[in-house]
């Protein structure tokens, strides 16, 4: 309902980890960690973007593809600083999701708090449960929940 799998993205991630570099001859942005769940009549997507300025986040929807792009810049340091450990990632990151037809992509809401980008996507009304009335030859009506 929410998304189709991205089989090659996971293979790329494994290969980058195993061989220590970009795959397919080009640098690729890091993948943004995400949780996705349904709450009532909406899907909620939560993306971890610690240290990313909300102004540096780009959200686009084209057809059924949602793309999240962001960039985290390193902390500016003066010339007298000697960096001893650098484990925090910097640079571009992105995530593409293939969304189902049963989501209302025109009413997506986005919120960024405490390093988490939260998107709320309503389920389209046509995708909700509905009752279908079935008539019989003797004019009785039976309702069936679909």
Automatic annotation (TrEMBL):
<dbReference type="InterPro" id="IPR031107">
    <property type="entry name" value="Small_HSP"/>
</dbReference>
<dbReference type="InterPro" id="IPR002068">
    <property type="entry name" value="A-crystallin/Hsp20_dom"/>
</dbReference>
<feature type="domain" description="SHSP">
    <location>
        <begin position="25"/>
        <end position="137"/>
    </location>
</feature>
<dbReference type="InterPro" id="IPR008978">
    <property type="entry name" value="HSP20-like_chaperone"/>
</dbReference>
<dbReference type="Pfam" id="PF00011">
    <property type="entry name" value="HSP20"/>
</dbReference>
<comment type="similarity">
    <text>Belongs to the small heat shock protein (HSP20) family.</text>
</comment>
<protein>
    <submittedName>
        <fullName>Hsp20/alpha crystallin family protein</fullName>
    </submittedName>
</protein>
């Amino acid at each position: 309902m929410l998304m189709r799998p991205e089989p090659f993205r996971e293979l790329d991630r494994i290969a980058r980890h195993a061989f220590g570099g970009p795959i397919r001859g080009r640098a690729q942005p890091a993948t943004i960690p995400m949780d996705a769940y349904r709450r009532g009549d909406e899907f909620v997507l939560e993306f971890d973007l610690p240290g990313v300025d909300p102004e540096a986040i780009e959200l686009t929807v084209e057809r059924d593809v949602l793309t999240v792009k962001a960039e985290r810049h390193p902390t500016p340091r003066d010339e007298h600083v000697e960096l001893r450990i650098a484990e925090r990632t910097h640079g571009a990151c992105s995530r593409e999701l293939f969304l189902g037809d049963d989501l209302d992509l025109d009413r997506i809401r986005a919120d960024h708090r405490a390093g988490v980008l939260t998107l709320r996507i309503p389920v389209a009304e046509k995708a909700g449960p509905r009752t279908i009335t079935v008539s019989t030859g003797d004019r009785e009506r039976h309702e069936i929940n679909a």
